[in-house]
Automatic annotation (TrEMBL):
It catalyses: N-terminal L-seryl-[histone H4] + acetyl-CoA = N-terminal N(alpha)-acetyl-L-seryl-[histone H4] + CoA + H(+); N-terminal L-seryl-[histone H2A] + acetyl-CoA = N-terminal N(alpha)-acetyl-L-seryl-[histone H2A] + CoA + H(+). It is found in: Cytoplasm; Nucleus. This is N-alpha-acetyltransferase 40. It comes from Hyphodiscus hymeniophilus. GO terms for cellular component: cytoplasm; nucleus. Coiled coil: none annotated. The keyword Cytoplasm applies. Keywords: Acyltransferase, Cytoplasm, Nucleus, Transferase.
Length: 202
C-alpha cells in the first residue's frame, strides 16, 4: 500500500481508475445540472475546498459527533482531513464543493483495504444516487489494486440513513467492529459506531 500511495496522482489515476472519463462529471437526476468530479491528493486540495468539505461534515454530522463520547473536535477533524495519504473525489458546481468522498488505500488490522474516511453530500445532492456512484469509485479502485481485500468505513450507529445506505450497497458489520458494551447491571449498550466492510470481488 505504501507503493500505491507513493504514486503520483497521474499514475494513480492511470493505474487504478477506469480508463474512460465517465467519473469526471455527474448529472443531477432531478435538476439536470452537470457537476465536475475531480480526484486530488490531500495536499493538492485548496484551503477553500478543504473549508467547504469541513463545513459539509459539520452540517451533516457534528450532531452525531456531539452525541458520542469523543465529542465534536473541529481542530482534530481538520488535522485528520489533511493526512498525507488521503485522496479526495470532489464534486463541484460553479467551483463550489457540494459533495466529496475521502479515502486511503491502507492496512487495517493487517488487511489491505480501501478505507473510506468521509462521504458527505450537501442536502440537494442527497438521495440522488451520487453516494452510491462515489462509493462505486472506491470499490473500482480496490478491484484494480491487486492486494486489496475489502472496502471499509466507520459509521455512527445513530446515523440510521447512512447505515441503511451502506447495507443496501452490500456492506456488513466487520469482525473488527466494536462489540456492544456490557453495563454493570448486565444491560448491553450498542457501541456509538460500527465498522462496515465489503469484500472486493474480482
Ligand atoms: C449517506 C450519503 C452519502 C448517501 O448518498 P445518497 O446519494 O444520498 O445515497 P444513494 O446513492 O443511495 O441514494 C439514496 C436514495 O436515492 C435514490 N436514488 C438512487 N438513484 C437515484 C436517481 N438516479 N434518481 C433519483 N433517486 C435516486 C435511491 O433509491 C435511494 O433511495 P432509498 O434509500 O429511499 O431507496 C448521503 O445521503 C449523505 O451525504 N448524507 C449525509 C452525510 C452522511 O451521513 N455521511 C455518511 C457518514 S458515515
Amino acid at each position: 500500500m505504501d507503493r500505491v500511495n507513493k504514486k503520483t496522482l497521474d499514475i494513480f489515476v492511470a493505474d487504478y481508475l477506469p480508463p474512460h472519463a465517465d467519473w469526471k462529471s455527474w448529472t443531477h437526476p432531478k435538476t439536470g445540472e452537470v457537476y465536475e468530479v475531480t480526484l486530488s491528493t490531500s495536499t493538492a486540495v485548496s484551503a477553500a475546498d478543504f473549508e467547504s468539505c469541513f463545513r459539509l461534515i459539520e452540517d451533516t454530522s457534528a450532531e452525531d459527533y456531539k452525541k458520542s463520547s469523543d465529542g465534536w473536535k473541529p481542530r482534530a477533524k481538520k488535522k485528520e482531513m489533511q493526512l498525507l495519504d488521503l485522496k479526495y473525489f470532489l464534486v463541484k458546481h460553479n467551483q463550489k464543493v457540494e459533495g466529496f468522498v475521502s479515502f486511503m488505500p491502507t492496512y487495517e488490522d493487517d488487511y489491505p483495504v480501501i478505507y473510506c474516511y468521509e462521504i458527505h453530500l450537501s442536502s440537494s445532492l442527497q438521495s440522488t444516487g451520487l453516494g452510491s456512484i462515489l462509493i462505486g469509485h472506491l470499490e473500482a479502485i480496490g478491484v484494480n489494486i491487486p492486494e486489496t481485500e475489502k472496502t471499509m468505513l466507520t459509521c455512527f450507529t445513530s446515523n440510521a440513513q447512512a447505515v441503511r445506505f451502506y447495507e443496501k450497497l452490500g456492506y456488513v458489520k466487520d469482525p473488527y467492529s466494536p462489540p456492544p458494551k456490557q453495563l454493570r447491571n448486565g444491560t448491553k449498550v450498542e457501541a456509538a459506531y460500527v465498522i462496515l466492510s465489503k469484500p472486493i470481488e474480482r
